[in-house]
């Protein structure tokens, strides 16, 4: 998640540069074909083009609102996981007798394994993403590889026994199996008389809540943003940006065919190209914002900061256990909190 108050120009332009590199030359081509080639059909009245621009802006705005709703829902889900994790730790330490210190630690450490397993499952690259998506994101993923690692053994080994780690990582959905193991451990504690029935039911209620939060996160992960909205928004933006230079011929008064290069004849091309590129930048930027936020679990700079949230949970839980050697909180790197 990008945490700086303002985006840097390098980020804004690096994500849009391929599209902007086409806008300027296209405007120049339109001007040359009209003024030198005599293709008068290229000159269009700006009024209908501006009407198209208004329609496209409304459509892109609708898409961006929907994309932000997906991001915000993902963040609320992880906020719920943080709260449920504290509830789980507090309940375990309250209900499980102090004499069962190893059982307490097992239940809480397995929970830490669950949040990290869920994080890695959600960060697997989705089949819905384009292979050339987000060149800037890919570069940052290379620079910050340690914060985007997906080594299951290394990530879960501190919280699970070797046998349980091998068993869990062999499953299709490790996070689901970890919660199942939690429920089985509660049953064993109740059978041994270390856990009251009502306390077991209360703890099972927390597990049920965790299953619900996991399912909500998986729903966002495995359900792409409706492609009819995403693709048509991109298509409409491209059509509008293509038409803009043709409409600007009318605005800047390029109404005659050139036979020789003179300043009076050539000067309209300069503001026309600048305006074409600027308008293209604005609309492509609006379109890009929606693309960047529609998938909140895809390792982009607009991602939900699951690493930081998992570390916050780990610190809180281990402090509740009375541990003093705690990991450092995650900090933003290059203004990105992972």
Spatial shape: elongated
Our measurement of the CA-to-CA distance between the termini, rounded to an integer number of angstroms, reads 6 Å
Unreliable stretches: 131-136
Work out the radius of gyration.
28 Å
Biggest beta-sheet profile: none
| Counted beta strands | 0
Residue fraction in strands: under 5%
Protein structure class: mainly alpha
Helix content: 55-70%
Overall average residue pLDDT: 84
Order of helices and strands: HHHHHHHHHHHH
Instruction: Count helical runs.
Output: 12
Quaternary status:
single chain
Q: What do you see in this structure?
A:
It contains twelve helices and no strands. The chain is 69% helix and 0% strand. With 338 residues, it is mostly helical. It has one domain (9-320). It is elongated and about 90 Å long.
Question: Which features characterize this protein?
Answer:
338 residues, mainly alpha
A few lines on this structure:
By secondary structure, the protein is mostly helical. The chain contains twelve helices and no strands.
Write the layout of secondary structure elements.
Blueprint: H1 9-35, H2 46-95, H3 101-122, H4 135-143, H5 152-156, H6 162-169, H7 174-191, H8 197-222, H9 227-251, H10 263-266, H11 269-293, H12 306-320
Helix pairs in contact: 1-9, 1-11, 2-3, 2-8, 2-9, 2-11, 2-12, 3-7, 3-12, 7-8, 9-11
């Amino acid at each position: 998640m990008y945490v700086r108050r303002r985006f840097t120009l390098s980020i804004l332009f690096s994500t849009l540069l391929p599209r902007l590199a086409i806008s300027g030359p296209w405007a120049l081509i339109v001007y040359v074909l009209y003024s030198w080639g005599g293709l008068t059909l290229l000159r269009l009245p700006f009024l209908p083009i501006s009407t198209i621009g208004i329609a496209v802006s409304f459509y892109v705005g609708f898409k961006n609102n929907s994309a932000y709703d997906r991001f915000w829902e993902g963040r609320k889900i992880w906020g719920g996981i943080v709260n449920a994790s504290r509830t789980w730790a507090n309940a375990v330490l309250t209900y499980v007798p102090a004499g069962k210190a190893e059982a307490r630690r097992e239940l809480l450490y397995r929970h830490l394994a669950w949040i990290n397993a869920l994080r890695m499952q959600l960060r697997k690259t989705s089949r819905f993403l384009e292979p050339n998506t987000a060149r800037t994101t890919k570069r940052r993923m290379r620079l910050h590889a340690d914060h985007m690692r997906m080594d299951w053994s290394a990530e879960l080994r501190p919280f699970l026994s070797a046998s349980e780690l091998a068993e869990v990582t062999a499953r299709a959905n490790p996070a689901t199996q970890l919660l199942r193991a939690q429920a089985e451990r509660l049953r064993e504690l109740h059978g041994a008389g270390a856990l009251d029935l009502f306390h077991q039911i209360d703890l099972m209620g927390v597990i049920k809540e965790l299953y619900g939060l996991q399912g909500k996160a998986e729903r966002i992960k495995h359900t792409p943003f409706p492609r009819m909205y995403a693709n048509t928004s991109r298509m409409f933006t491209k059509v509008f940006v293509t038409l803009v230079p043709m409409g600007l011929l009318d605005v800047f008064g390029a109404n005659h065919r050139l036979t020789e290069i003179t300043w009076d004849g050539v000067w309209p091309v300069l503001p026309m190209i600048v305006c074409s590129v600027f308008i293209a930048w604005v609309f492509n930027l609006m379109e890009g914002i929606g693309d960047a936020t529609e998938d909140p679990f895809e390792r982009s700079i607009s991602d939900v900061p699951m690493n930081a949230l998992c570390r916050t949970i780990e610190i809180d839980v281990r402090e509740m256990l009375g541990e003093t050697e705690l990991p450092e909180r995650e900090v933003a790197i290059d203004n990105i909190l992972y």
